[in-house]
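Comment thread on ticket #2218

A.B. wrote:
> Attaching the input chain for the structure job we discussed in standup.
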Amino acid sequence: MLQPPPTLTAMERQLLQQIQTLSQSLLARVSEQDLKIAALEAEVRARDEAIHSLTDTLGRLLGPPARAEFSPR
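C.D. wrote:
> Ran it. Output below, let me know if you need it in another format.
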């Protein structure tokens, strides 16, 4: 933390200390949230890859879609 200038009053020093403490607390919370977000993004990517893989497998197993007997004119 920065050292407050000697010209600050006791109340100003106390407020500065509270602001610095709050700032550190908020930075820690943001860091935790960033880690949670990164984990969720990784989970979503893994699920997307699994869905894509399943879709490809189903496509190979079922073959191409059947053509409609009656096509709209």
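A.B. wrote:
> Thanks. Noting for the ticket: The chain has one helix and no strands.
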